Amino acid sequence: MFYREVGEFKTSYPHDSGSFSIRLDKYGYYFILFIAFVVIPLMINDYWASAVLVPFLVWAIASLGLNILTGHCGQISLGTGGFMAVGAYSCYKLMTSFPDLNVIFCIILSGLITAGVGILFGIPSLRIKGFYLAVATLASQFFLVWLFNRFPWFYNYSASGQISTPERSVFGILVTGPNVDPWAQYMICLLFAFGLAWGCRNLTRGSLGRKWMATRDMDIAAEIIGVNLLHAKLSAFAISSFYIGIAGALFFSVYLGAVEATEAFGINQSFLVLFMIIIGGLGSILGSFIGAAFMVLFPVLLKNILVGWWEWDAAIATHLEFISVGILIIVFLIFEPHGLAQLWRLLKQKLRLWPYPH
Amino acid sequence: MKVRKLFISLATILSLAAPPALADLVLPWLSYRTGPYSAGGIPTADGFVDYFTLLNERDGGIGGELVKIIECETGYNTQKGVECYEATKGEGSLVYVPLSTGITYQLIPKVSVDQIPLQTMGYGRTSAKDGSIFEWVFNFPANYWDGASVAIKHVLDENGGDISGKKIALVYHNSAYGKEPIKTLEKLSEKHGYELTLIPVDHPGLEQKSQWLEIRRGQMDYVLMWGWGIMNSVAIQEAANIRFPMENFIGIWWSGSENDVIPAAERAHNYKSLTFHGVGTDFPLYDDLKTYLHDKGIGSGDGTSIGTVLYNTGIYNAAILAGAIRKAQEIHGVSDITPAMMRDGLENLVVTDEIMASWGLPGFAPPFEVSCENHGGDGLAMVKQWDAQAKEWNLITELISSDKEVINPLIMEDSTQYAAENNITPRC
């Protein structure tokens, strides 16, 4: 009824293998893009940008990145926070060392630097698997944060050890620093998020993505059918770190403006991103966005309802927030282990047949 | 489609969440009553809120305007701090008090653009003392560099003015907060010839075995501590475990509350800490607090924090802000002031002994004056010592003034650098 495929004939291969093969899906996607690119920038204010949408987009990019590695290639990583720190600190060093370099290039270059670091820490994945790999990446998390605290060169010898972003503009529009307009702040994150999500979709349905998935499902079998594990695993680490590095760079330069490694990129952030992809759905792009929305927006929403509307005590509301987020994670894992994206997929399946399910 | 509907309903809920602005004097308080720093956050918040509740109950507010405090829970987390700032800044917030150096660094550029004053009492960015460059930021009455210098002066006094060759360790929270005093201590070590060892403790500071082993192995003569939250009590217990002489262990003012020493019980006896205000409840204000608040049961929190060190810090912070509000009302002749007027009030604030007495806090803290050049007060502090038997803090020194000869050039250097980075021309 809602999802009608009647009358949709696929007459060519590209049409058949399109991302949105059902017309309604495609219109829905265009509609969301329209809202995101046109409607929201016109309506956005400071609070929406810095407290809701920018963090959502930044975390969505990070979970896209981790989803490539964990969801598609099956390598568990707990080093996300550390890789985000690499992105943030390289962005800072690039921005301060080359003041004339456009900030967009700074962010992309920081992604590339992070990709290099990611490959380095991905090498152990060739020998170790599963929990042991998780522990190895955990080491990268602690090592990287320690590194950025230990050597003052990374934070330009500032007294406080904080890095803070200088003002930079793109085409004459400020995108970083305190004077930035909320829509510009949102737009640059959205462009990166859109571009990276688009890239991720096309990577994962191409031959590289199939190699990753073969590795995830059973690496010995993959090797037997001719997948080069070295190439598959390291490319997953590199591309995933590229995404996470960009998320880190945006997190520092556009979202917060000033960070310090220990607090902003601690182990908590690694777990946060891991929860995002588990709740959102492993190996799903929509899942990365839904997961990020759930982990970032739900606490804000709950706080606004409890404290803003019902005028609860702020501390009780925070404790309740911990409890309810925890409970919801457990509930989702029990009832929908494949994440919120799977819930959406099932719903779509049902709607296709509704109201005649048999 | 369901997702879209969900999104729209989420959007309406989120956007309706901000309540409309009221005509009161709005003071946001970025508190943290949860998390590893709540041991410090709760008593400070209680003191701050209680003082303004008292003004509302007893005097009907300030200059006839009720004070409305918006508590926003940050958990000492910078991201939540930013969220709180953005959520509350549209409500006519007069001044921000983040009680976190990390959040202060986040907010300094933002408040300068939004033109809302930021007051960081005894924390935050030290070079904000230079008011000619940091127009919207105030960090009176003392800052970390003052604290570092006062601690060293106390050590000098104890050693007859000569500490060359002494080994002094700095145990610090590995964050912007803990790193603040390092530069000053390094400069002072050049001047006085002591040996400085830096010992970082990572957030949240529950595990400090290796740090204290290093202190024992290095046979440190003195240990200074820049700690906060749970880190303090762990450090004091670890110091007791290695039998470090407590009288040689000096904490900054944030590392000297009852919550920090009580877990170590008797073994914390003689632990020292700095303070820029008095201790105890022996002030007339406490009678009023009892009559108007605690007897009626309308105090903030569960009442266990009343009279503790950090409760007093909260009271002191509230009292000087109330003083600044009065000053602003006096300068501009209106009772319902704006953030810009509040800034004038803060910048022209004069606190004398008589004014402190009129607040019901005679002799509680030294007098100070704020001016365009000096947003940081005089940097006076005392040393207090813990008496584990009586379970109370005793002031053991007079007010000690910090070494301006060393600190002022450092402040100049840092603020000039900030000005250059952000294209600010000094105002005065």
Structural features, described:
The complex is a heterodimer of chains A (358) and B (428). Helix content of chain A is 72%, strand content 2%. Chain A has helices at 13-16, 23-43, 46-72, 80-97, 103-122, 130-150, 182-204, 207-217, 219-224, 229-256, 261-264, 267-280, 285-309, 314-335, 340-353, and strands at 163-164, 169-170, 173-174, 258-259. In chain A, helix 3 crosses helix 8, helix 3 packs across helix 12 and helix 7 (182-204) runs antiparallel to helix 10. The relative contact order of chain A is 0.16. With 428 residues, chain B is an alpha/beta fold. Chain B has two domains: 17-143 and 280-379 and 409-421, 3-Layer(aba) Sandwich (Rossmann fold); 144-276 and 381-403, Response regulator (Rossmann fold, 3-Layer(aba) Sandwich), CATH 3.40.50.2300. Chain B is built from 15 helices and 14 strands. The longest helix of chain B has 24 residues, at 309-332. The N and C termini of chain B lie far apart (60 Å).
Instruction: Tally the helices of chain B.
Output: 15
- The tally of helices of chain A reads 15
**Class derived from helix and strand content of chain B:** alpha/beta
SSE topology string of chain A: HHHHHHEEEHHHHEHHHHH
Radius of gyration of chain B: 22 Å
Largest sheet of chain B: 8 strands, mixed
